UniProtKB/TrEMBL annotation:
NCBIfam families: DUF167 family protein, PRK05090.1. PANTHER family: UPF0235 PROTEIN C15ORF40. This is UPF0235 protein AB7Z85_17240. Transmembrane segments: none annotated. Belongs to the UPF0235 family. SUPFAM superfamilies: YggU-like (SSF69786). It comes from Pseudenterobacter timonensis.
Length: 98
């Protein structure tokens, strides 16, 4: 399974999260996952909330359209983006490879 896969109602992203980064960014591929750096610390769900907000902004969707399907407590996550309005360049590049 690739880092980014299309599904009927949107995209499924396999992510590797780097918390406490200097800035929020989609770094690129990390093995077969997409590495995302976020500034929030991995404490009390702060990183997940921050990640959801960041991804919603990147894909121009509501926060409720960003669903963490797997990996709530770990660095490796599977996130579903429902009906993305736009694709960040790093993600668009990966969807074209399939």
């Amino acid at each position: 399974m690739s880092a980014v896969s299309l599904c009927d109602d949107g995209l499924v992203l396999r992510l590797y999260i780097q918390p406490k980064a200097s800035r929020d960014s989609i770094v690129g591929l990390h093995g077969d996952e997409l590495k995302v750096a976020i500034t929030a610390p991995p404490v009390d769900g702060q990183a997940n909330a921050h990640l959801t907000k960041y991804l919603a902004k990147q894909f121009r969707v509501a926060k409720s359209q960003v669903i963490i399907e797997k990996g709530e407590l770990g660095r490796h996550k599977q996130v579903k983006i429902l009906h993305p309005q736009t694709l960040p360049t790093q993600v668009a590049a990966l969807t074209e490879q399939d």
